Amino acid sequence: MVEVDEDDALAPELAEIDEVLARTERLFDGREVAAPRKREQEVSVGELVIRDPDWDEGERIAEWLDLAKKVDRLPVTLAAALLWDAWEHLEPLQRQHWLGQVLVSDFLRSRGKIRSHLLAFAVGLREIPRERRRARDRTTRLIAFLDAM
Questions:
Q1: Hey, how many other C-beta atoms are within 10 angstroms of the C-beta on 104?
Q2: How far apart are CA 80 and CA 68, in angstroms?
């Protein structure tokens, strides 16, 4: 164990690391049994962590990736609009909604467009009325997305 001055600013963090190392050593030696971790599936309102146990991220991502293969033959801007729209409506990930923008940006880059096209697209979307961007009709949404470009 490392001796630390009481005035050291990192003393609490180092003490915590020492505790983790000691516990790990006890676990490896068999002197302590690790408690099984429970997967939390409830709604935590206090921290606003909401998880749906029936949410099938794998299936939703597979559906989005399948669409990405299909739109590869389309013009780049139309394909990007379709991918963006699909991400917005499929919602493949419960907690990482922002990842859709990164993936669409990477799609644009892979097709020879620069990433700033997506920035212009995102900024342009702010100018489009919400009713058009979130319309129930997919055609209206796609036209709004293309107008944003």
A1: 25
A2: 9
Q: Read off the DSSP letter of residue 36.
A: P
Name 49's bridge partners.
Answer: 44
Give the single-character DSSP code of 72: G
pLDDT, tens digit, for every residue of 15-36?
888 888 888 888 777 776 666 5
Q: Using H for helix, E for strand and C for coil, what is the string for 40-96?
A: CCCCECCCCECCCCCCCHHHHHHHHHHHHHHHHHCCHHHHHHHHHHHHHHHCCCCCC
Q: Give Cα 135 distance to the centre of its chain.
A: 23
The whole-number pLDDT of residue 86 equals 92
| Rounded CA separation 95/93 (Å) | 6
Sorted by where each begins, the domain ranges of the chain are: 57-148
